Amino acid sequence: MKKTLGLAALAAVLACSTAYAQQVNVKIGVLSDMSSLYADIGGPGSVAAAKLAVADFQKTNPNVKVELISGDHQNKPDVGSQVANQWFDVDKVDVIVDVPNSGVALAVSEIARAKNKLFIVSGAAASTLTGAKCNPNTVHWTYDTWMLANGTGKAMVKTGGDTWFFLTADYAFGHALEADTTGVVEKNGGKVVGKVRVPLNTNDFSSFLLQAQSSKAKVIGLANAGGDTINSIKQSAEFGIVKGGQKLAGLLVFSSDVNALGLPTAQGLSLTETWYWDMNDANRAWTKRWNAERNAAGKYPTMIHAGVYSGILHYLKARAALGAGEFDGKAVTDKMKSMPTDDVLFGKGTIRPDGRKIHPAYLFEVKAPSESKHPGDFYTLKATIPADEAFRPLKEGGCPMVSG
Amino acid sequence: MEQRVAEPIATPEVQPTVWRTQSATILFVVMVVGLIVAPFFTYPLFLMQAMCFALFACAFNLLIGYVGLLSFGHALYFGWASYLSAYSAKAWGFTPELAILTGTATGAVLGLLAGSLAIRRQGIYFAMITLALAQMMFFFALQAKFTGGEDGIQAVPRGHLFGLIDLSKEMNMYIVVLVIFLAGFLFIYRIIHSPFGEVLKAIRENETRAISLGYKTDRYKLVAFVLSATLAGAAGGTKAIVLQLASLTDVNWPMSGEVVLMTLVGGLGTIFGPVLGSFIILVMQYKLAAVGEWVLVIQGVIFVACVLLFRRGIVGELANKLKIRL
Amino acid sequence: MFEIFGIPSNALFGQLLIGLINGSFYALLSLGLAVIFGMLNIINFSHGAQYMMGAFAAYLMLKYSGLGYWPALIIAPLLVGITGVIVERLFLQWLYKLDHLYGLLLTFGLALIIEGVARNQLGSAGLPYVVPDELRGGQNLGFMFLPNYRAWVIVASLTICIATWFIIERTRLGAYLRAATENPALVRAFGINVPRIITLTYGFGVALAAFAGVMAAPIYNVSPQMGSELIIVVFAVVVIGGMGSILGAIVTGFGLGVVEGLTKVFFPEASNTVIFVIMAIVLLVRPAGLFGRRA
Fold it and tell me: Treating both helix axes as pointing N-terminal to C-terminal, what angle do B44-66 and B273-287 enclose, rounded to 10 degrees?
């Protein structure tokens, strides 16, 4: 009996040491919105970005075997949580990536914690993911609401836009965006002269735009998202808001939205992003590869797509560093946090203890059609917000892992 | 004369045999046995969710199938019940049975309010009014603070049943859901086969005749409406505890459409139809999760096909072929 | 300048005018629903999707054949109307003998199909469509800045609404239509092809929705889901007005647009629910609707 145990132990040790040089197996699940509201900012584009990340990593690390699957949460938290549960339990997925839509992302984050797996958020905006609802199994990669509010708010006030009027989507998300931005504006010496709470999915913004116009505020802040943002920008152009000397600041606008609006309508709009495809040669080269992978010529990757790429790359690096064997989600997250991040799209950065990935953010202004040199030439860079100022300070988030 | 919704199946002409007279009982036993062994072969969480939807669809079917009222806003009771159930469990620390009861009561109250408005009009108007009221309450849910807007209510504790049984264990939760589902199912079966249920069917066939027979049909319709909303509430409340979340999806209008689809596919006015229909639709939803682009189109095609080709639904067509009642 | 409830009167005039613009869309859409319901006894749930088709048709025409706003305003409703005729021949004609609810269910299914295909083919983010050159800019009315395009929306939709009302209530063709609704057998006995009238009516109702869609394209987000939310509000409008009369549908549409516009000034948070609340009140006070006859 004793002998067999000893032999078994020896065998186990041997197995471990030989496996170290051998294969590392991981399974990545890209969970996104493939067909409805967020399909353009995440969706199939995120899957393409994930494929690029895996391919790039395997070039230098052939011993890491990666299986990539994808799923559609259809923007429904219960579908998302069902898929996440099944992926973790049945399909043995190690990490879930992307998940636009805060409701679904919060559900998946909770599941990842309960099952001690890993969740890398690129698509969702809620800053609570690394705030009050943070957990040791979630890393928030690309952007969040606080960073958008801060970036746009601060930079606009500094460039002279010191009086603000808010068009706020009347639900939790809009309120949070408005409150965060108001804080930043006032801290930098600006003033909020008025606001109006607009119900979600309002078709006609003209009434609210007239109120904004007569407020004489220098900046009209759009604390809304998706179709509401597009409608409000479209109708601002019609009512001559920008021509009348007021500036529009979109607090959650993606390059795909700008593409949807067209430059004649969107020109003059200010917005913050953490990544823009046409900013440097590295991004342009990556966009070309993404286009080939995505098989869609006229589309441009969003910062969410770039975040999926960068997040998976860093995950694979951390996972390879741990070597073969089984590691739970928390162990891998800790490893990811202990290593500095570095990739061609976001450059050097870090992941904070609360799970927040830190990198610079950029304030852009949408070009007029006459300034745009080629298709997809959307933005002029107005300001860069350095990494250490771009995101909410660690202590202010109320993340229990940090304060405790 | 127009063909009514869920037209009654022709009376059996064949000599009744044990198989024919007891077909419903036999099928019921098969269903119960199936649901007891299923979690050993299939993912239990999926089954629990499917049972919640099955109860929801059965509750909906009580109205369309047995009173002939098409409610296009049943997400209202389902969704608000799941919010209240989730909130009471999370914020007030209710035990799961109390939380589900809270959800059920929410369904009842909202059903009474919406029902007393909606039954003032008939037919198509009834459908439009229920849809409009549900949309209004969707906006309230969106704007209310306690619902968490787009984030929903997350990480709802499953807690301990009666303070004793730990529901975070999957099998315990499964048994609770199974009991709730079967209780709801049998309750509906009782209603349909009671004198009250006979009056409901009389209203479905010909409301004017029922009125002339001295029945206060509005009152009967309202009671049926409240019962349906209450059971939808029970389903929604249970789902919130099972999935540990409540979200906008459950109060939004596509959910109202989905429950119509489930019932239509299974068979309007059949006891087992909604159960089968909801399992089919849910399986489809998850099988298609990898290629989600076409979910909406496929759902639409099923709607059109059901209305044009087999209005009785799967169970209804089957029952008609075999000349039995299911 | 004087004030009403703390709002400057000039701002109020502006909001009233804007309410009318909003009401134009409600009026056009509920008019189409009423025309279809009057003839086919079907509530056309795909009306919102067909409104979206109108906007998409305008976009596709501009992109692939360079046809701008003005041709689109005529051709898009025609094309979408033709699809309506096909839908009626293929599907709806089989349902007339059934309970009305089957029509609702079938058109709901159609709406899902149309929206799903649009999402797959054209994405969900929305598509650009600009205001035509002739209608750029606007007038300063003193109390507000009125974009020319908005003025055009009011004029065009009023014209279409009144023309439709005139045709149905005041012409021989309209008389046939109304008679065919009341007593199809008798009208057939006069040698009039009733099924064809029904088909064309559905096509016309759908074309009205598409017309509203083209009008909406330059100012609202052109996206697959643009119609589905709107149609629920229009249902409430129809319940309030009752579908008994053409004029009723038009007046209710404009009227509720104005009420909604005013809510946006006094109590913006409720502006999306006000129409539903009004619906509830009308149901309590006058169940048949403002212009409806008790069935």
Answer: 130
Q: CB count, 10 Å around CB of A91?
A: 13
How far off is chain B from C260, nearest CA to CA, in Å? 14
Which chains pack against A, by 3+ Cβ pairs within 8 A? B, C
User: Do A186 and A264 reside in the same domain of the chain?
Assistant: yes
Please tell me the total count of domains within chain A: 2
Q: Which of B136, B294, B303 is opposite residue C108, by nearest beta carbon?
A: B303
Nearest-Cα distance to chain A for B269, in Å, is 28
CB pairs under 8 A between A and B: 104
Note the ipTM here: 0.88
Which has the closest alpha carbon to B251: B275, B263, B233? B233
Looking at the fold, whether A157 and A173 belong to one and the same domain comes out as: yes
The alpha-carbon gap from B222 to the nearest alpha carbon of chain A, in Å, equals 31
Lookup: tokens for A202 = 């309002």
Q: Going edge to edge, which strands form the sheet with A219-223?
A: A191-198, A163-169, A219-223, A247-250, A270-273, A361-366, A379-385
d(CA B36, CA B241): 20
On whether both A56 and A112 belong to a single domain, the answer is yes
Task: Convert the pLDDT of each residue in A171-228 to its tens digit.
Answer: 888 888 999 999 999 999 999 999 999 888 788 898 899 889 888 999 999 999 888 8
Is C202 in contact with C85 (CB distance < 8 Å)? yes
> Per CATH, is B18-322 categorized as 1.10.287?
no
Domain ranges of chain B: 18-322
Residues C124, A201: C-beta atoms closer than 8 Å: no
Taking the CA atoms of residue B245, residue B251, residue B253 and residue B255 in that order, the dihedral angle to the nearest 10 degrees is 40
Give the domain extent around A353. Answer: 24-143+280-359
Cα–chain center distance at B16: 31
Mind listing the pLDDT tens digit for each residue in A46-77? 999 999 999 999 999 998 999 999 998 888 88
Q: What CATH number does the domain containing A307 carry?
A: 3.40.50.2300
Which residue is it, tokens 């429904």? A76
3-class state of residue A323 by DSSP: coil
